[in-house]
Structures are given as structure tokens and as C-alpha cells.
From TrEMBL:
GO biological process: amino acid transport
Domain named Leucine-binding protein: residues: 37-384
InterPro entries, per database record: BCAA_transport (IPR051010), Leu-bd (IPR028081), Leu_Ile_Val-bd (IPR000709), Peripla_BP_I (IPR028082)
Protein name: Branched chain amino acid ABC transporter substrate-binding protein
Gene3D superfamilies: 3.40.50.2300
Presence of the UniProt keyword Signal in the record: yes
Length: 406
């Protein structure tokens, strides 16, 4: 249904039945959630240039709400997800979170997808004193609100830590790249990481002969592709979101140019993995459906449910990855906070989270560092036979998998 601001709106009331224990845990009989639903409000970019990735977060959220309601809900009450479309626009996200809190009277909120909408929502959360769990904000030092908590382990300084993970992987290649072209969206988190990549690369002796920025949501990469081809560096680093990597690689192909090796920051995982241009490209991740990650509690069941739902939704790549896992972890953190504090009061939930470790699909999660972040856990994955595989650092690589040079 459309509200007065023209945003798509959907409610999920997923409760009221007797279920089993948490995903992957021993089955025990519990009373079904009952009574007045606990309303959790949030937005996702269901339309606009972030939609290809935000739909992944939506499916993951629906799986988690069903899981929570199959057990005890929140404090014995069923969870209702009030989800609105922020259209990939921070100003729309800001208005919708205001509406969720003041008009819809939600009990709790869940953060949106992507840094710019998250920052917009965070300002509203701070004004009303609401806890906000967010799954995907890539600029931790902007998370200055004390009751905002990250679900994904970026660490407090990903602009320093993650470029060095990439540079370590580059150094492991038979012929380590000596030059790098950086092309990035002006979307805040991508631009932040690109600047960090340039600084860290130059510190380690990798020259950056070309650094280009483009407007978020850009679709015409012809001129940028020509500049990349002319520079002809050993490595191409792309600060992309959604389909931008596909569009850039296609533009390069039209110029009969294939980058020697390329890294892509936050692309839509399915379209890039399945593209003829995507073979052996690198990408950021925190988790993939291989060992050692699949041995984590509940992970196999979550992966099965995600594959089933993503296939039904006609997603081109129905395999769980870090995008879906970020939203899974966000709901696990919110559930742990509510149950641990034994209340829906935001300040008490926040206080409990700061003092405790929450087990998520990412492992033990702490909020005791700068900007409520714990230790960084960034990984590199590579497209191999149209599937993403973790290839670096080595201790997280599944048996039989290795980084393939290009």
C-alpha cells in the first residue's frame, strides 16, 4: 500500500504458533508468542539504485522474524515488521523513520541498508532516543550516536584495516601488482574506503596513477572506462554499489579491455558473479556458505532457508553471503538485547548490549570498541565458476579453494 508520501509499505505479522528452538539448536517445546505485537519499524531501498542489494536484506529479515516468532517472539509477544521503502534516498529514509516513530508508534526500530540512509535514520533515532542496529554502515567514525550498534564486523577503522587485507592478498600473487587505478562512487562509504585504499597503497609502494570519482547511481561509464584503459594499471579497485561494477566492466569490454585484476567493494553479488565479465574478480565479504562459516550455530539452516526464499523471489544468485548475513546478525543482536535486558526500553537494551557478547552468524560480537565496534573481520572473495569463494586471508579459505591469479 502507498502512504501519503508515496512510499511502498508492507507489514509482516509473523507469529501466533508453537515452534521449535532457535535455528540449528535442539528442539524444545515453547509457548507461542501471544498478545499485542511488538512493532519493529524500518526502511530498505526496495526501489532505486540500491534495490538489487536491499532485496537481499529484506529476505534475510523475513527469515529472522519468522525464526524469532517460531520461538518466543520478543518477551513472549509476536514481532511485527513495519517495512517502508526509502527509495535509495537518505532524505526519504529520514522522513520515514520520523513517521515510523511518531505516527506508526513502533516499539523499536531496525536500521536501513547502506551508509547514507543509515546516517539519515540515525539522526532520527538519536532525536527520539531509540536503539538502532544497523547492518551495513561502512564509515564507523560517523556512528557517533551512543545507542547505535553495528551488526557487521567492519571494525573501527576499515579505511585502514581493509586496504591492507587487499594489499596482503595482492602481495601473495606470483607477480604482485605495482600500480592501481581507483574508481569510486561518491556514495559516502565507497568514497571513504577509496580514499583509504589510495593512502594505504601508496604507503606500501603501489602507485595510483589514476583516481576517479563518479556520482552515486551513475549508469554511463564510457568515459570512465576510456580513462581506465589508458592508465592500464596492474590492478583496478572499484568503489561500487549495486550494478555499477557490471556497468563499468561492460563498458571496458566494449573498448576491448579487460583489467588484469579487479576488486569491487559493494556490488550486487548475483549479477557480478553470473556476468561473463565477472570471472575471477575480487570483492569484499565477511562470510560465505563454506567452512569455517557453515559450522557456526544455525548457519546451515539459515543458508537453506535463504536459498529457498531467494529462488522463489527470482534472485539471480540464491546463495547466502555477507549482505544477507548482515541483516541476519542485526536481528540476532536486537533479539539478544531485548531478551537480555528483559524490556523494550531502548536505554536498557543499549546498556545490556554494551556489557555483553552477542553470538551471531559472524561469531561472538562485541560493542566495546570505538564507535561501538569490535574487531575487524574483512575478507576477500573471488568469482570462481560463477560462485563467490573466500580466498583471503588463508585461515578462512575452505579446503580445496585458493586465490586464482589472473
Amino acid at each position: 500500500m502507498n502512504d501519503r508520501m508515496g512510499a511502498w509499505r508492507r507489514r509482516h505479522v509473523l507469529g501466533g504458533f508453537i515452534g521449535l528452538a532457535a535455528l540449528g539448536a535442539p528442539a524444545i517445546l515453547r509457548a507461542a508468542p501471544s498478545g499485542q505485537p511488538v512493532k519493529v519499524g524500518g526502511t530498505l531501498s526496495l526501489t532505486g539504485f540500491l534495490a538489487q542489494t536491499a532485496v537481499i536484506h529484506k529476505i534475510a529479515a523475513e527469515i529472522m522474524i519468522e525464526d524469532i516468532n517460531s520461538r518466543n517472539g520478543f518477551l513472549g509477544r509476536p514481532v511485527e515488521y513495519v517495512l517502508l521503502d526509502d527509495q535509495s534516498k537518505p532524505d526519504v529514509a529520514r522522513s520515514l523513520y520520523e513517521k515510523l516513530i511518531t505516527v506508526d508508534k513502533v516499539d523499536l526500530i531496525m536500521g536501513p541498508y547502506a551508509t547514507a540512509p543509515i546516517l539519515a535514520a540515525m539522526g532520527v533515532a538519536q532525536r527520539y532516543g531509540k536503539v538502532m542496529i544497523q547492518s551495513s554502515m561502512g564509515i564507523p567514525n560517523l556512528q557517533t550516536y551512543d545507542m547505535a550498534f553495528p551488526a557487521t564486523p567492519f571494525g573501527p577503522e576499515p579505511d585502514k584495516t581493509y586496504p591492507n587485507v587487499i594489499l596482503d592478498a595482492m602481495a601473495s600473487l606470483p607477480t604482485p601488482p605495482k600500480s592501481m587505478v581507483i574508481v569510486t562512487s561518491k556514495f559516502p562509504s565507497a568514497q571513504f574506503m577509496a580514499k583509504g585504499m589510495r593512502i594505504e597503497a601508496e604507503k606500501r609502494g603501489v602507485k595510483v596513477p589514476l583516481y576517479l570519482e563518479y556520482e552515486a547511481g551513475n549508469r554511463d561509464f564510457g568515459a570512465i572506462a576510456a580513462r581506465v584503459k589508458e592508465a592500464n594499471a596492474d590492478f583496478l579497485w572499484v568503489g561500487s554499489l549495486g550494478l555499477e561494477s557490471n556497468q563499468l566492466l561492460e563498458a571496458l569490454r566494449k573498448l576491448d579491455y579487460t583489467p588484469k585484476t579487479s576488486f569491487h567493494l559493494y556490488p550486487a553479488p548475483g549479477p557480478l558473479a553470473l556476468s561473463p565479465d565477472g570471472n575471477l574478480v575480487w570483492c569484499s565479504t565477511f562470510l560465505e556458505p563454506d567452512e569455517p562459516f557453515m559450522s557456526r550455530p544455525g548457519m546451515k539452516k539459515i543458508a537453506e532457508l535463504y536459498k529457498e526464499r531467494a529462488t522463489k523471489a527470482n534472485l539471480p544468485y540464491a546463495i547466502i553471503d555477507a549482505q544477507a548475513a548482515g541483516m541476519v546478525a542485526a536481528w540476532q543482536i536486537l533479539e539478544a538485547g531485548v531478551n537480555g535486558a528483559k524490556t523494550l526500553e531502548d536505554k536498557q537494551i543499549a546498556a545490556w548490549l554494551k556489557k555483553n557478547v552477542v553470538t551471531t552468524v559472524y561469531g561472538p560480537t562485541k560493542f566495546d570498541g570505538l564507535y561501538n565496534h569490535g574487531e575487524p573481520a574483512q575478507l576477500i572473495r573471488q568469482v570462481q565458476d560463477k560462485q563467490w569463494k573466500v580466498v583471503w586471508p588463508k585461515q578462512f579459505v575452505a579446503p580445496g579453494v585458493k586465490l586464482i591469479p589472473t
